[in-house]
Amino acid sequence: MSAAQPILLDVEHLRIALPSGGDRSHALHGLSLHVREGECLCVVGESGSGKSMLAKALLRLLPAPLKIEHGTLRWRGEDLANLDEPAMRALRGRDISMVFQEPMSALNPLLSVGRQIDETLQAHGEKDRAQRRTRVVELLGYVGLPDPERLYHAYPFELSGGQRQRVVIAMALAFAPKLLIADEPTSALDVTTQRQILDLLRRIQREQGMAMLFITHDFAVVEAIADRVLVLQKGHHVEAGTAAQVLGAPQQDYTRQLIAAVSAAPDHPRPILAPGKPVLQAQQLEKHFSRRLGWWGRRTTRALAGVDLQLAEGETLGIVGESGSGKSTLGRCLVRLLRSDGGSLHWHGHDVTDLPEARLRGQRGEVQMIFQDPFASLNPRQRIGTQLMTGPLAQGRSPAQAAEKAREVLGLVGLPETALERYPHEFSGGQRQRIGIARALAVEPKVLIADECVSALDALIQVQILELLEDLQRRLKLSIVFITHDLRVAARLSDRIAVMQAGQVVEQGATAALLGQPNHPYTRRLLQDFALHTSVLEATP
């Protein structure tokens, strides 16, 4: 990227104050940066480094308690502080657009994806209905979605994670913005889908001459997309330079630590377990989803196709596959949040396949789920203490006993008792995931179903959560089904691995044997894609 290109965005000495004060009195400490036309600046750092605060400040979307204490943000030379709210609304979506980390949080589950993009066009003054529809179909096709006319009527839950992210990108591109802010848009995606999304963004950037401010914690993503890199730690500028400089010769220990975390292999093999008593068994599980097409037709999708699984006492079974392979659907069927359409499911030898909800309620404490996005699964209007007490109270414990259990599980996951009085938005992503684990433990389960519970976290926080799960498994004698798209994580935590493709388990076996000598072509491709994702960084000093 030529330095002769004009500067679009110029941030000088930005300081954002936190309401809590103390050691972390500021989310950002005097940060300065610029973005030129057509370039991609990657802002890198772990959870709590201030990356997302920067993005929200640029769009004047900071939460109410936070405020810009000092500094200037200039768009094409104009100070954004001088713009009134109508002018900012006109700027957002037209000149500056944003792609969020979790598309299911950014999309309305009750509206078709076409209708949601249409509303974006309508909000910015596009009056002609036929022209809006043509533009929506054009955008869906432009971001690589198949059959855009059909997908116009699809709902977010009917799409895979990668498809939903493409819809959000299409929405952001509605008015060909000059700057796209992408806040961790690939962190929860498998490496194959991640590469497709990065290739898509690069193509769009080249074709439209668009600049990007790309927020990420993953240096493998930086290598794929960045022109320049800015590293943040706890709101402080650590290091900056071209992608080649920062990746090839990082100057700071923190940068080297982040790079090393991407390609880190398990530091200790898990011991091979003796066969234990089965605590969860699935045989020939089937699940279909259908939706109406017009007045008479229906479209049926087979999400699970004859899945056989068994989990032994004290074991961790990893479920691995790409986006849309059926992993999350399987997890929800195993915990009976979804009822299967065929096959059988046993918990501790008891058939719960078709058990009515009233009778199942007494057994729900045995099998609990940890969700991928703890912010979406926690009630933003309830204090943490209230949410941790809900399960024990439902089991018939007294309020005093439930409060004691809440304090106990917070201690188990390494959080202070003061967290009971706080709300979910007051915690970092890693802390919220600990709260999600604590909530699952509050009813004393024997089996945990962990659905991509570290995929949206940076590599350093991932390690902490994985160590926590390993420690809890030893102390509480838990059995775990660990759903993930990350083979590095699966290798560290799993005793056995089952590989899923298109709703089927195509291969399963002991972790070392399966990863060392995979038999199925799909497993071999997953391993090749993952090796490609990390290979460039392995030689970094």
List the helices and strands and how they pair.
Elements: E1 7-17, E2 26-36, E3 40-44, H1 51-58, E4 67-75, E5 78-79, H2 85-91, E6 96-99, H3 103-106, H4 113-123, H5 129-142, H6 148-151, H7 161-172, E7 179-183, H8 191-208, E8 211-216, H9 219-225, E9 228-233, E10 236-242, H10 243-248, H11 253-262, E11 278-293, E12 297-312, E13 316-320, H12 327-334, E14 342-347, E15 350-351, H13 357-360, E16 367-370, H14 374-377, H15 384-394, H16 399-412, H17 429-441, E17 447-451, H18 459-476, E18 479-484, H19 487-493, E19 496-501, E20 504-510, H20 511-516, H21 521-535
Parallel strand pairs: 3-8, 3-9, 6-7, 7-8, 13-18, 13-19, 16-17, 17-18
Antiparallel strand pairs: 1-2, 1-4, 4-5, 9-10, 11-12, 11-14, 14-15, 19-20
Helix pairs in contact: 4-5, 5-7, 15-16, 15-17, 16-17
Can you give keywords for this protein?
disordered C terminus; 37% helix; globular; 20 strands; Rossmann fold; AAA+_ATPase; 541 residues; 21 helices; 6-stranded mixed β-sheet; alpha/beta
